[in-house]
């Protein structure tokens, strides 16, 4: 008999459907609930990305942290069986503590390394091709650890309800909120302590839940008859001294906009909607790797144009280390057995060593300018396949 007793959260009046808080309202295997944090300095030296996800219908909880430091990408990943305590946000050495909801959170990664960088299975985990270092990672396990307090400087902002279909199949049905704040603490790596402090560092975060594809989905007829021609994505949370700006846009191959928002948050003021954003992106020749951009916005009161300037400082491909598609060594929501932990270091000096990175979303820590103000945030970008507005004709098409 399955153990279907109430869980601790059932004591509180937070239910949305007549189910225990142990269960989600959908039986879709792709149900998820997760978060991502970005912590980065304003000079472009370091970019730390931390995430944790719960996949209730797959019975999995996992987490990751990556640090881009020069040309080295340190990665720590952990996965385990999902338990009943949904307020315990920890997996292996990775932990997130909600000290004050929507205001203050603590991010921690315990110190420790493995002797050879290999995954450390526990319980009934079975070693497989995904639990060994791949050819593009260094043999030594990462020494990365950190203890950082993330404090919000602005209220959390809803992003638009995100819905996608493939033919008649609902493949993505998610809701997110985004927030920017200050960060303080320390990052330790390779025997060095990197102090993290307000004024020189910025933190952003995103919380999302709903239904989103995880590995193992069968293609079948819908995939055959609805091939992906192209995908173009931009997601930019930007923190200025006295305001927070969020820009998000998604387009199909022909430029049709399927997700769109540009909102400015200021204390004591109503959120300001800045129209229909349009981006002019400068790419490194021979790639789709952006070096700078101008995002065109519109002030609603007088319809005057506003330009958000973007200067990329450093970059971290989410398909390397962080478990986002099309990562070939580990992806979110996959079962690795109980107590699976993996530490490794990737060499990013040669982009050709990581060919799949170009087909995944890349997070760029960036310096932004708007109306004479300088801010810092994330310029998250992905462009794959055909995109007519950019002049890309297919998956092998790059900037000239």
Topology:
Blueprint: E1 31-41, E2 46-55, E3 60-69, E4 72-81, E5 90-91, E6 94-100, E7 104-109, E8 137-138, E9 145-152, E10 157-158, E11 162-166, E12 169-189, E13 192-196, E14 201-211, H1 220-225, E15 230-239, E16 243-252, E17 257-266, E18 272-273, E19 278-283, E20 290-298, E21 305-317, E22 340-347, E23 362-370, E24 373-385
Antiparallel strand pairs: 1-2, 1-14, 2-3, 3-4, 4-22, 5-6, 6-7, 7-9, 8-22, 9-12, 10-12, 11-12, 12-13, 12-14, 15-16, 15-24, 16-17, 17-18, 19-20, 20-21, 21-23, 23-24
Which tags fit this structure?
15-stranded antiparallel β-sheet, single chain, globular, nine-stranded antiparallel β-sheet, 400 residues, mainly beta, AttH-like fold
What would you say this structure looks like, in words?
The chain is built from 1 helix and 24 strands. By secondary structure, it is an all-beta fold. The strands form 2 sheets. The protein has a 15-stranded antiparallel β-sheet that branches. Strands 18-17-16-15-24-23-21-20-19 form a 9-stranded antiparallel β-sheet, with no helix packed on it. It is globular and about 60 Å long.
């Amino acid at each position: 008999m399955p153990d279907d007793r109430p869980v601790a959260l059932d004591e509180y009046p937070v239910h949305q459907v007549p189910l225990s808080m142990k269960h989600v309202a959908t039986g879709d295997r792709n149900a998820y609930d997760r978060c991502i944090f970005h912590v980065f300095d304003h000079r472009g030296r370091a970019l730390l990305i931390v995430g944790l996800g719960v996949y209730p219908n797959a019975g999995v909880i996992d987490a990751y942290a990556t640090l881009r430091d020069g040309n080295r990408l340190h990665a720590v990943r952990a996965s385990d069986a999902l338990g009943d305590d949904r307020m315990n946000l920890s997996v292996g050495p990775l932990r997130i503590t909600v000290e004050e909801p929507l205001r203050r959170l603590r991010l921690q990664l315990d110190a420790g390394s493995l002797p050879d960088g290999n995954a450390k299975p526990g319980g009934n985990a079975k070693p497989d091709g995904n639990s060994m270092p791949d050819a593009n990672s260094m043999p030594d396990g990462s020494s990365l650890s950190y203890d950082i307090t993330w404090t919000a400087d602005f209220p959390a902002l809803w992003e638009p309800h995100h819905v996608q279909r493939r033919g008649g199949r609902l493949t993505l049905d998610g809701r997110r909120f985004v927030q920017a704040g200050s960060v303080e603490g320390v990052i330790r790596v390779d025997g060095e302590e990197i102090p993290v402090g307000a004024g020189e560092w910025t933190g952003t975060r995103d919380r999302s839940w709903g239904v989103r594809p995880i590995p193992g989905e069968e293609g079948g007829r819908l995939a055959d008859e609805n091939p992906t021609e192209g995908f173009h994505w931009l997601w930019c949370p930007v923190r200025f001294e006295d305001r927070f700006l969020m820009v998000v846009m998604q387009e199909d191959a022909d430029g049709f906009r399927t997700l769109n928002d540009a909102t400015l948050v200021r204390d004591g003021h109503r959120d300001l909607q800045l129209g229909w954003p349009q981006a002019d992106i400068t790419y490194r020749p021979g790639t789709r790797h952006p070096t700078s951009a101008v995002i065109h916005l519109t002030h609603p009161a007088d319809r005057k144009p506003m330009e958000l300037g973007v200067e990329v400082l450093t970059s971290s491909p989410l398909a390397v280390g962080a478990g986002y598609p099309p990562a070939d060594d580990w992806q979110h929501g996959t079962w690795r057995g109980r107590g699976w932990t993996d530490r490794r270091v990737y060499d990013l000096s040669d982009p050709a060593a990581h060919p799949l990175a170009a087909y995944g979303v890349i997070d760029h820590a960036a310096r932004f300018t708007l109306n004479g103000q300088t801010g810092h945030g994330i310029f998250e970008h992905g462009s794959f396949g055909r995109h007519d507005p950019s002049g890309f004709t297919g998956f092998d098409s790059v900037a000239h």
